[in-house]
């Protein structure tokens, strides 16, 4: 489960399905939970966007990741003037520590940005992306 938003506020729940028509909650990630159940990926953008993904400590220090109560906010830096030839804007990308197979995911996202230069997203992939496919959720 991955998130790479530029300014997203959300909570999410993961529900495991059984063969019967009932579902049981297996995991519920709300607000500050994301700081321990998801990992910030400080990696070059796999899709070659002009962005600089930072680790959790940097994201928290720069308030690009903010968690409190039932709220998680992830955003891109909007204050720094970038060099035309330098690295891209600091932003965040996180993935869940836990891997899910058969499941239902429920997201409660209060806001996702739109506009030029934004690419907010929530998606799921197999270990061998793109060969195992991708589910784009939001
Ligand atoms: C960090 O972001 C939150 C949410 O937008 C805001 O309430 C808070 O004041 C910010 N903290 C700092 C130090 O700017």
Automatic annotation (TrEMBL):
Q: Which residues form the GH16 domain?
A: 16-138
What are the UniProt keywords, alphabetically? Answer: Signal
Q: Which residues form the signal peptide?
A: 1-20
Q: What would be one Pfam family of this protein?
A: GH16_XgeA
State any GO BP term from the record.
Answer: glucan catabolic process
- Transport found in the keyword field: no
- Report a single Gene Ontology molecular function: hydrolase activity, hydrolyzing O-glycosyl compounds
The name of this protein is: GH16 domain-containing protein
Q: Which organism is it from?
A: Cerrena zonata
Question: Which taxonomic lineage is given here?
Answer: Eukaryota, Fungi, Dikarya, Basidiomycota, Agaricomycotina
